Amino acid sequence: MKYILRILLAIVLSLIGIGFYIKQTDVTEGRFYIGLGVVTLAFILMPLFIYHSYKDKDLTKYTYIVNKEKDTDEEEENTEDEVKKEGE
């Protein structure tokens, strides 16, 4: 996957570079190559890169908990129960 991403990046950069080079003589054809490079970057390269970056990571610690008070209350109750059990 790493090599595919590198090859796609090289293709995108070459398309954009060729587009700017051709744009000096033929504006419409140059814009076509630049647009093709940008579309490839946005809709093919970036999703593949994001998938490759996060495929084996645990993302549960980055989730947003809506009701933190409820979770902290449960934790306090658990610690109080543990203290009571230890005291007995």
The radius of gyration over CA amounts to: 26 Å
What ranges have pLDDT less than 50 throughout 5 or more consecutive residues?
none
Arithmetic mean pLDDT = 83
In total, the number of strands is 0
Terminal CA distance: 58 Å
**What is the multimeric organization of the chains shown?**
single chain
Question: How is the secondary structure organized here?
Answer:
Elements: H1 2-23, H2 27-54, H3 68-87
Describe the overall structure.
By secondary structure, the chain is an all-alpha fold. The longest helix has 28 residues, at 27-54. It has one domain (2-87). Helices cover 80% and strands 0% of the residues.
Throw out a few tags for this protein.
88 residues; mainly alpha; 3 helices; 0% strand
Summarize this, please?
This protein has 88 residues and is mainly α.
